Amino acid sequence: MDMQEAANRADSILDGTLDAIKPEVKWTHGETTAGSCDLSRRRTVMTVISEQRRGAFLGVIDRLWRKSGYEITSVNSNKEFPAIYAKSSDGFGMSLSIGGKGQAFFEVATPCVEESAVAKPTVESNGPDYSGGPIPRPNVHDDFWSSGAPLSASSASAP
Questions:
Q1: Which of 28, 133, 106, 17 is nearest to 66 (CA)?
Q2: Which domains does the chain possess?
C-alpha cells in the first residue's frame, strides 16, 4: 500500500463514520499531514455539539466503530473535552475528540506505508468549506446536537 492508497482508506473510514451520524453534522476537511511513511487525514465538525449531547455523540461513534470491527484503545471521559481512540485490524488509528465550544475533530492516522504523492480528498465538505485556511469554532446550529436540553428517552433516538 502506498500513501495515496492509505489516504483513500483513511477517507473511507471518515466517510463511513460521518455518514452514520444521524441527524447529520456539517463538517469541513482539516489539514492532511504526512510523515516519512505515514499520514493523517482530518475532518472538523462545524455543528456545535452541546455539553448535554457530547456523551450521546461519542456513544454513536463508539458503537459504530465497535460494530465495524475496530478496537477501542482508549477513552478520555473528561466532561468538557472527551475523546475516543480506536484502531483497525490493518493498523489505522482513529480518534474523535471534542474541543472548545463543542467542536468535534476526527482524525485517521495511517500505518507506515510506501512513500508516494498524496492528492487532496475527493469528497466535498457537506458544510462550509474552510480548506486551505483557518477553521473557525463550530458555527452551525442543529436542533438535536446543539440542544442544551438533557436527553430524554424520546430524544435519545435522534430523528
A1: 17
A2: 3-109 (3.30.160)
